[in-house]
Design goal:
Blueprint (H helix, E strand, L loop, with lengths): L3 H29 L5 H22 L7 H15 L2 H13 L3 H29 L2
Helix pairs in contact: 1-2, 1-3, 2-3, 2-4, 4-5
Length: 130
């Protein structure tokens, strides 16, 4: 349902997740240096772990999590923290639905097209620079 409480939960969670992403990325980069994107790597892995945990806890109703809390955590906090977590959960869901081929296609396709799109975006902006 799309109402003001849902949008407020997403906005609040997104703000928190974005700040958390910055702090984790900054801390990891300060600690290990900028040679390899360890900050992004850690964010993607921890975000994927977190979204799997929240999805399972809300699906099994282990904590009695309301739909609003689920949206706050999954769409808001983890959406602000990393969208890679949603990608990872999509892969798990597809694979769990016995659609391994579709999961592989989605996974490799997202990585390949994402890489090409990012490369194209950089190339486009560079081509427009004087």
């Amino acid at each position: 349902m799309l109402d003001w409480r849902t949008l407020a939960a997403i906005a609040a969670g997104g703000g928190f997740g974005s700040v958390l992403r910055y702090l984790v990325g900054f801390t990891i980069t300060q600690r290990f240096g900028p040679g390899f994107p360890w900050g992004t790597f850690v964010i993607n892995v921890t975000g994927s772990l977190a979204i799997g945990m929240v999805a399972e806890l809300s699906a099994t109703r282990a904590l009695g999590m309301s739909p609003l809390v689920r949206i706050f955590l999954m769409v808001g906090v983890l959406g602000g923290y990393t969208t890679f977590s949603a990608f990872s959960l999509d892969l798990v869901t597809l694979a769990g639905d016995r659609a391994a081929g579709l999961a592989l296609l989605y996974g490799f396709g997202s990585l390949a097209f994402g890489f090409v799109a990012a490369f194209a975006g950089v190339a486009l902006v560079r081509s427009l620079q004087p």
